[in-house]
UniProtKB/TrEMBL annotation:
The keyword Transcription regulation does not apply. It holds the Pfam family Trns_repr_metal. Residues 1-24 are annotated as: Disordered. Belongs to the CsoR family. This is DNA-binding FrmR family transcriptional regulator. One of its GO terms (molecular function) is metal ion binding. One of its GO terms (biological process) is negative regulation of DNA-templated transcription. It comes from the Bacteria. Keywords: Copper, DNA-binding. It comes from Sediminihabitans luteus.
Amino acid sequence: MTDPTASGIADETPAPPHGYTPDKDAYLKRMRRIEGQVRGIARMIEDDTYCIDVLTQVSAVTKALQAVSIGLVEDHLGHCVVSAARSSEAEGAAKVKEAADAISRLVRS
């Protein structure tokens, strides 16, 4: 197969606006699953479920949200930060600072 850019025709497909955009459907599916888990925890509390069982489910939701967060951080670094760094050193530094601040918030939570 030949390279389409070799003929002088540039690929005009715009870059996605966010790093997670290519995986948006998967992220939404995961978030809907987490939403269901949270509703389940609320039902457990309404039904006076044993404390440890509720805490176990809270832990599962927390881990699921952490997994989503890690994926978003990876996507942000690989897309937004890299793109900004290619644009200019100042933009790259600003995006790195923004990412570091976001990671700091995640670690504290």
